[in-house]
Amino acid sequence: MTVENPHAADEVRISNAGTYWPIAPSDVVLAVPIAARILLGATPIGRAVQFAAFAAYAGSALQDWFDRLGVQKIDFLSEFGADVHHLTPMPSEIREDEIRLLTERLNDEFTVERIQRRELAVAVDRHLTRYIAGITGQRVETSAEVRDFSVARLIFPFALGACDVLTGDVAIFRDVGVLEPHVIAHEFSHRKGYWKELEAQALAYLTLTASGEPVLVQSALCERLHRDLRALVGDDRAAFRERVTQSKLRPELRNQFLDLDRGSPPEGVNREIESVMRKLYDERMRLTGQNGLSDYDVGFTNFLYTFELSPTARQGPPAAGALRDRPQPTTLTTENSSLIN
C-alpha cells in the first residue's frame, strides 16, 4: 500500500520562475558567459555578468528544489502494479494484436481537432494536476509555460521536447502534430517531479486517456501505437516507415507518423554526433535507476500491459485507454486475458 505522509500539504506550488524568462534558463547559463567573454573579456565586469547568469539559474533551481520537498510522489508499484523494475514483457504476437486494435480505434475515433499550443498546455496541465491529485490527494501546481526553442535541441537532435530537470523549463522543438498533447504531458510530468522517463510516459498516457477530451485521448492512443511500432523495429528508420506506410491507418494519421522521421537520416559527422549523444543519454538514464532509452517505448508499452493485467494495482486503467480486460485476482496468466474489441 502507498504510505501517505500525514504532514503533506493538500497543495504544493512549485515556482518554476525560470519558465517565465524570455530565454531558456539553460541557454542563459550556456550563452551569457560566452557572450560576456567575447564582448567584455576577462574583466571584472565580464566576470560579474557571468556570475549573475549562474546566480539567477541557481536561484531558480534552488527555489524549485525546495518547493518539491513537499511533493508526495505516486508509488507506481502499489498504485499501478508496475514500475521501472517490475514489468511483464509483452509477447510479440500480443504486441501485433495491440497494434491492430489501436489502428482500428484511431481510425474509428479520429478527430481533426487541433488546439493551439498555449491553450493546449494549460488544458494538459489542468488534467495532469487533477489526475495526480486523484491518487495522492495532493495538487501539485506548476507553470504551464512552453517555449519552442532551447539549445537542448542542438544537443539532443533525436528528441521531440525537453525539460530542464533543475528549473522545470520545457521546450517542444517542433510541431509534432497529433502527438503534441502527449509530448507536453510527458514534459509537464517531469516538471511536477517525475524525472524517470517511463513514469513520465505513463502519467502522460493515463492523464490524457482519463481526460474525457477526444483530441487528448487520440494523442495518447497515437503515442501508444507509435511506441509499439518502435518497440518492434528499434532505431531502424526505414523499417518504421515501411510499417507505417503499409499500415491501415487513415491517411491523416499515417502522414503524421511518417513526419516524425522526416528528412534524410543523419550522415557523416552528424550521424556520429547523434549516436554519441544517444549513448550518453542512455547511460545517464541507467545511472539514475532507469533501463535506458528503451523505457520510452518497450518499457512504456510493457508498463501499460502489466498495469492492465495486474490483479494487485490499486488504480484501474482509464476506460478510454484500456485495451484489455483486467483478470480476476486469481488469474495470473496472460492466456485468459483478451483484447477489448
Main attributes?
mainly alpha, two-stranded antiparallel sheet, 341 residues, disordered N terminus, 53% helix, two-stranded parallel ribbon, single chain, 2 domains
Whole-angstrom Rg:
21 Å
Residue windows where pLDDT falls under 50 for at least 5 positions: 1-7, 330-337
Determine the number of helices (DSSP H or I, runs of at least 4 residues): 13
Number of distinct beta strands: 4
User: Mean of residue pLDDT?
Assistant: 87
Largest sheet, spatial ordering of strands: 1-2
Class of secondary structure makeup: mainly alpha
Shape: globular
The N- to C-terminal Cα distance equals 32 Å
Domain module tally: 2
Largest sheet: 2 strands, parallel
- Provide the succession of SSEs: EHHHHHEHEEHHHHHHH
Percent helix, as a range, is: 40-55%
- The share of residues in extended strands comes to under 5%
Explain this structure.
Strand 3 and strand 4 (about 170) form a beta hairpin. The chain is mainly alpha-helical. A two-stranded parallel sheet has the order 1-2. Strands 3-4 form a two-stranded antiparallel ribbon. The protein has helices at about 25-40, 45-70, 75-80, 90-110, 115-135, 150-155, 180-190, 195-210, 215-235, 235-245, 250-260, 270-285, 300-310, and strands at about 10-15, 140, 160-165, 170. The chain has two domains: about 20-70; about 75-310, no CATH class.
Tell me briefly what this model is:
With 341 residues, the protein is mostly helical. It has 13 helices and four strands. It folds into two domains: 18-68; 76-309, no CATH class.
